[in-house]
Design goal:
Layout: H1 22-32
C-alpha cells in the first residue's frame, strides 16, 4: 500500500529553525565572548538562531 501524496514530507529541511542544540548555543556564546571556560553547559541563556 502506498502513502497518500498529501502525507509525504515536502521541504521539511528548508524550514526555519527556532531552536539551537546545546553545542550550537555554547559555540555561539564563545563567539560572542559570553562563555566562561569551565562553566556548566546546563542552564544556558537563550540565544537567537543566526541564519
Amino acid at each position: 500500500m502506498s502513502k497518500h501524496s498529501s502525507l509525504k514530507a515536502q521541504g521539511s529541511a528548508a524550514g526555519k529553525r527556532s531552536v539551537m542544540k546545546r553545542f550550537e548555543r555554547v559555540k555561539s556564546l564563545k563567539e560572542s565572548g559570553k562563555w566562561v571556560e569551565g562553566q556548566s553547559p546546563t542552564g544556558l541563556p537563550k540565544t537567537k538562531v543566526d541564519q
